[in-house]
Amino acid sequence: MSTKQRPAVPPKPARLSMGARKLTSPITTPRSLTEQPLFESPPSSPSPKTPSTGESTPVGTVSFSVPVGRQARALYDFEGEPEFRELSFFAGDVLNVLREQLAEGWSMAEKDGITGLVPDSYITYINEFNEVPPSTLAAMRYQVGGISHAQSQVHMNGSIRYNSIIGRRQLNRFSWFVTTGVEEYLLDDGNGQEIPQAKTSNDEEIEEVSESDKHYVQSGPSWLEKAPIFKVLVHSPERRVKLGGMSEYTIFHVTSLFPGGIQVSVERRFSQFEWLYNMLCAKFGALVLPPLPEKQFAGRFNDDFIQRRRRALERFINRLARHPVIRYSDLLTHFLSCQSDSEWRRREKEFEQDKILGYKFFQHVYHPEFNVDDGDLETVEKFEAFARSMEKLMPWVNEASQAHKDSMTECQRQYRRVSYSLLRLITGHNVGDGFAGNNEDGAWCWRDGCQACLNLTKAVQSVSESLQSVADLYESYINDNCVPLCENLRDYSNPMSTCLPIIDMHMGTYKRYKDIADASDPMAEDENVDLETISSRCDTVFNVTLAEIDRIHDERVWDFKENTKQYLDGQIEFYEKILEELRQARATFDDPHYSSLSQTPRETSKYEAMIDSQRPVLARPVSMASVSSMTTMMGGVVDGVGSMGSFLKRTARSSIAKTTMFEGWWGRS
């Protein structure tokens, strides 16, 4: 099944020219000092608040004017240009983003006291569990005599201890643990939901989750199948043109066969298959999806390529239809049933605005409690070892299946050669002047009116045509059985790369789970942090990964079982048809049919016109004279080596009527 490519450094967005007025306006908003210090040591004397804020500072309250922002980590090195007020940083640096998405792909950020513009595509935000909501921030101003040193120290130590265990994110932002949304799901907040935003009276919209977005894991763990399995056929490719012949493309007919005899047929281009795959990757990034056939521009209208793509698309869509979660998704249902172009475009926009993507998939997974025992690391390790073993051994299977296909192709070619050679013999085709291969009745004989040779000639011609039918059966068997077998086996050539996302997700979650289990220090407790909820989230990820491992196991069993059955059924049917053809050819030589062949003249075979296209490759016969000449030459070579040369020459010449010249030394074996 295909792997995700490591993304390259994104291009720098178009420059955003910022004046001094715009640059300084957003960073002077005051924020009260919380219990976590912003500086290594407080200033010796408090700084008064800016008068323009319009706030009166109560007696005994100290407030500092500090930038308000959101922490982000740099993904790539960026060298900014000072004349455009761009901020320079290195990969891994922590930035304080003051204004997000300022304009045209830029944000305002601060680093080491320097403020400037940073490209949005070069940074990723860091969620902090101990971040205090703005609504309660004003009530937590630093009171000089209100909080004791011991209380603040305990609270700070708890937050720092928690961040050291849970709050840090992986620096490798390209690992599957990150890209599938697992890390974001685990570190979103501590109560199992997204951080709530302040709602007004006008915010009455409630996000409704459809039944197709709810997924259930049963004991095992394994996916609960909410819809029955169905079969999909991709067939009847058609080449079409539009824009007056300026654009050409291939249409595939996709027919879904549902239980109860229900059939639905639609027409789809490869670009629509590609759209389906990309949308499924965005929505179900935590699941292992089958690979999509690769694009090809050169020779894309070649018949062999179109049939190869058709078979690959059929395997792709059927594996989606067998997946217990993808099977009932709105995306797949829409792809297989929508027949209106206007409806397709309307639904396409709806799917592109879907909000249940990435890590939100885990928020709608339901499973029994205690369904997984401490992450079940042993199962994942065995699964990984099995995948590595399979990846090491599959090249042998692929090579053998390809050799089997090649041998069948060679058998087909040899059957045709035998057929054409027999036909050439009995017809005397292009034998040349001065040669007579047939009599006036077309029989393979020099006698005119020879009934026996006419019977033989027509019977041999029937055998030749039967051998052509056998060769046709070989060709059909290769296309219908050997090629699909090789392609199905080739899909399992790299099982490790296919299973790597699941293994990476599980291992990354297991590490966080063990960190939580080892965090037994009571100082790590924080009123804003629920480690039990984070542990529960880890359990949800474990259920998803182990359910996918179970699904991959069942898919492999189904694939190899069905492929082997189809191979054996094809072999049985193939050889039964060959046996029938050979029996019919053999019956031609039995009386009374054989004797009646001479009652009518021989008719020209339809294969005679193709004899010239088959040029036989004849082995050159070796005569005794050539061997004698070789020994004469050998004798001449060794004449100048004295008595040893004479001995070798006599021995070589005497070996012509025997076996080898060395039998006199070693004896006959």
From TrEMBL:
Domain annotation SH3: ranges: 67-128
Ranges of Polar residues composition bias in the record: 25-35
Keyword Disulfide bond: no
Gene Ontology CC: one annotated term: cytoplasmic vesicle
Molecular-function GO terms, alphabetical: phosphatidylinositol binding
Alphabetized UniProt keyword annotations: SH3 domain
Residues in PX domain copies: 230-343
GO biological process per UniProt: endocytosis; endosomal transport; plasma membrane tubulation
Residues covered by region (Disordered): 1-64
Source domain of life: Eukaryota
PANTHER family the UniProt entry points to: SORTING NEXIN (PTHR45827:SF1)
Protein name: 8825_t:CDS:1
